[in-house]
Amino acid sequence: MIVKDEKLSVCVNKTIRFSFEREDNLLTAMENKNIDVHFHCREGFCGACRTKLLSGKVEYKVDPLACIEDDEILACCCIPVTNVEIETY
Amino acid sequence: MKYTTFNQQTTNTMEEPMFFGAPVNVARYDQQKHPIFEKLIEKQISFFWRPEEVDVSKDRVDFQKLTDAEQHIFTSNLKYQTLLDSVQGRSPNIAFLPIISLPELETWVETWSFFETIHSRSYTHILRNLFSDPSDIFEDIVTNEEIKRRATDISKYYDDLIYYTQLYQTQGEGVYTIDGQTHDVNLRALKKKLFLCMNSVNALEAIRFYVSFACTFAFAERKLMEGNSKIIKFIARDENIHLTSTQHILNLWIKGKDDPEMAEIAKECEQEAKDIFLLAVEQEKEWARYLFKDGSMLGLNEEILSQYVEYIANQRMSAIGMGQPFNVSSNPLPWMNNYLASDNVQVAPQEAEISSYLTGQIDSEVASAEFEEFEL
User: What is the spatial distance between Cα B66 and Cα A19, in angstroms, rounded to a whole number?
Assistant: First the structure.
């Protein structure tokens, strides 16, 4: 059974694991954990925060305009909706 | 194929390639083959700004306080940016519009070029404020050897594509000798020229502005030339969108999501495209060397700027499948991000400097003489 309050877990580069505290987006969540992530616009159009999504699902809060592959996400404008494993560049 | 401003044949733009298909007719956006361009137009228009909204009058005082070496850095960067936007304000229109087959892409290119003309106007706005007569600065752009060398590399791919398109659209395919030079005009060769040109534009938007941006924001970190820095923040935000568009065009070709022949050409020209990017990186590093020839400025030197160019190049080359050729993984100038983040561009009205909310120029200096008429 899925407990509603259960926090989603985020695994970065196979080594760092933390729970998503309902931050505005995945980029802020990673920054709060002092993970070095690239960023510029923070609005989904520059692509600097491009991150590989190894497993799980994310949801976009604004339409991502930057160029990404099918297995990539833009950390600045998405939140995880399941547990996710990601890899930064 | 002859260019027409309104193609009277019925075309299905959902099946046309981005370039070199049937000429466009109705400017309709209800159906789009590549909706990303419509989204970019919306985003870009939402970023509309005017240089006159930014009060640059304090910059004149700051400029007098700069050392000679710093003044050289500041004006040289403005000259280089003026060159870049002079080219970008006209070239995408002239080179790409006659060969575009999708209305959403056509409108994107027009929107993109229009914003480059705003950038050009803003350089005049900045320079007019700093110098009573900015003519010397503008005139030097066409005679300065350092700038000329870059101008050649930036414009040659555009000029080549434009010339061959003109031959193709007026004469058709064939071999033509003009002024003693032979030109083999065929669609495949034209598409190759388009691919190389788009790579050159992509490298320009990705790399060529960033040494100048870094210097501008380094001045702003010292609370100097802040009006100028506000304008450059707007420009940097726009350039990021333009870059996204060229990355989309290149990736649509590379991944075979548009014209299948362009996918072949992308493969064929992979190394040549990469070399264009790497040359832009090299030229930006040389530019940093030229800027700092008389001395560096606080917080920046040639080495750290070169590292920043490599750092940016890694990100932007990997976005179009060129890998990360440079050994720089972390950002050597982390404070740059404060100026590149989009939500930092709109300044809150309660902040001391509300220049982005001005609708006209104001006099930000109040002399004590102005209170003479007041009596207590």
Answer: 49
